[in-house]
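Per reviewer request, we include the raw input and output of the structure prediction for the construct analysed in the revised manuscript.
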Amino acid sequence: MGKQTMGIHHITAIVGHPQENVDFYAGVLGLRLVKKTVNFDDPGTYHLYFGNEGGAPGTIITFFPWANAHQGKLGSGQVGVTSYVVPVGAMSFWEERLTKFNIEFAKMERFGEQYLTFVDPHGLLLEIVEREDGDKNTWRFGDVSPNVAIKGFGGATLLSSKPESTAKLLENVMGLEKVGQEGDFLRLRSIGDIGNVIDIKLSVVERGQMGVGTVHHIAWRAKDDADQLDWKQHVSQHGYGVTPVRDRSYFNAIYFREHGEILFEIATDPPGFAHDESHETMGQNLMLPPQYEVHRGQLEDVLIPLQVRDID
């Protein structure tokens, strides 16, 4: 048996105004803001992390919010749709909730599953699907209770410039299993119980352009540092150029661009988000890596103030 990732670790996207981002993902979707830090490569910009109560791998969506930045263009070389999974029986709640906040949605079926599809305030395509798999999210916020709360990622739809090459990578290198084809979509599944279903659009669309409303990269899970080094060697042996390991404070990361032009990351499950603040206080304070702590005052003057607000 070759190496197999459990599935998605996190997805990172580019969005607009940070308060609008927080109001939507915490206020509307009921996710927990588990970390408020900065982009390590551009410390004048936030890096915001949202997930389940514990910030578990497979639940984390992260954002680089740039107010007034240019709008991106969805297309090949990107994650096209980010899928969230909710408990069976929760779909009517989410239909009512999206309606309450005047968020337009559509219903569609794919591979025998019903989806609600909608767009976040900055153009990111999202969908909600019911599944039995995955632990309930114990986080409570506003009118969102654990019985209906988003458990984490259902998966993602990939827009590849070379769909067959991307599918081959996911199956033969990343260890996902091909489970079926329906119309224009090929479905693969990882061994995890969340963040585990990947659909690849088989027809090639025009190339995307990075900007607000687009996904920057998708990250896959590695058990720990040793497993990540195994992945680095494994991916390199299959002809992909992989970066050195980079310390992202809450996980270590390696990156490579697959042949369909989508940026892939492999991230470690540990250490997680509670090592520099307590589980109870995660997301409340601006947390800076040591190299930027000396510049805290300057950064706090530049960063747009934000707060998690109950908007129900």
